[in-house]
Automatic annotation (TrEMBL):
It catalyses: [protein]-peptidylproline (omega=180) = [protein]-peptidylproline (omega=0). The lineage of its organism: Bacteria, Pseudomonadati, Bacteroidota, Flavobacteriia, Flavobacteriales. Residues 122-239 form the PPIase FKBP-type domain. Gene3D superfamilies: 3.10.50.40. This is peptidylprolyl isomerase. InterPro entries: PPIase_dom_sf, PPIase_FKBP_dom. It is an enzyme of class 5 (isomerase). Its EC number is 5.2.1.8.
């Protein structure tokens, strides 16, 4: 990959939606499955997979000179009958994630945490990944050619001038990446390609369908509805995002610190704070109501000393 393009490429892992025409009495109706019941079914399937498969942990414990540091799964059977299952691996963690009022078990294999920066759910990440189903069918492989992921996405205006969401990744993917760290550095090769320090985060994600595409997988992707998904990931780089370029990093615009930047909207318009260049709607851009120092650090000024920073205070404006 060319260095000039490296910092400009931004790929998104978008969520597809389907709808029914309610005005057509002859159109078949679609009844979505109950999310709570599906969560239980998915968890049973994931636990079964984790209990009957192992990863190549011995290769990571004693890596050969030509080892590619890629995770491989195999079934515990035959000559592999004595292998430690994924479910019993010390590297497997279980993370509880609530989505649409349903609590899910998200399983994350942390083969190597990494030594660089840890992303928040509001950042951009450069990731090599392979996506597969539980029958080991691969539906996407970008391990050799990593891509940028804008984890939360943002609100912008569509071609009709209406607010619309752009970018963003699947909840299970985002909630898992924050458990890893990126590489601590990189070198630029003579051919202008990048070689990453071999301390980047390596792992795998085992996501229930409720934290993936649920009933609406993207058309033509080879992913059936209600499919739990598995991702093998290498996290190479993390970049602090400022989606609205107002001088305040998007993670700081998550005012209630619940990991969701979309429910923080100070002025109550169609744009949450991380997508709004004038957070308090007073007509003065946020960038003009904060102090950005020469070293890039920011001060959230409170000119009238009422306890609310100027950029969030509609009663103060310049």
């Amino acid at each position: 990959m060319r260095l000039k393009k490296f910092f400009l490429i931004c790929a998104t892992f978008s969520i597809a939606f389907s709808s029914c025409n309610k005005d057509d009495d002859d159109a078949p109706t679609f009844e979505e499955r109950d999310r709570g019941e599906q969560a239980l079914e998915d968890d049973e399937r994931l636990v079964e997979y984790l209990s009957t498969h192992f990863y190549n942990y011995e290769d990571f414990e004693n890596p050969s000179e030509d080892f590619d540091y890629r995770i491989e799964f195999d079934t515990i059977a035959g000559e592999n009958a004595d292998k430690t299952s994924l479910f019993d691996s010390e590297e497997l963690i279980t993370k509880s994630v609530t989505q649409d009022d349903v609590e899910y078990n998200l399983y994350i294999l942390k083969v190597r945490e990494g030594e660089g920066d840890r992303p928040t759910t509001s950042d951009s990440t450069y990731v090599g990944y392979t996506g597969q189903l539980m029958n080991d069918q691969v539906f996407n492989d970008n391990m050799v050619s990593p891509v940028w992921f804008d984890l939360p996405g943002y609100i912008t205006l569509d071609s009709n001038g209406r607010p619309a969401r752009a970018g963003g990744v699947l909840p299970g993917f985002s909630e898992s990446l924050v458990e890893f760290k990126s590489a601590s550095g990189y070198d630029v090769n003579p051919d202008n390609t990048i070689s990453w320090t071999n301390d980047y985060g390596i792992g795998a994600i085992f996501s229930p369908s409720g934290l993936a595409y649920f009933a609406s997988p993207p058309s033509g992707a080879g992913i059936p509805g209600y499919a739990p998904l598995i991702f093998k990931v290498n996290l190479y780089r993390t970049v602090e995002a400022d989606h609205d370029r107002d001088g305040i990093p998007s993670w700081m615009e998550d005012l209630d610190e619940d990991g969701d930047v979309y429910n923080d909207n100070t002025d109550g318009d169609n744009f949450p704070n991380h997508s709004d260049a004038d957070d308090d709607g007073d007509g003065t851009p946020t960038r003009d109501e904060i102090l950005i120092r020469e070293d890039g650090t920011i001060e959230l000024t409170d000119t009238n000393n009422d306890g609310t920073p100027d950029y969030l205070d509609p009663d103060f404006f310049k």
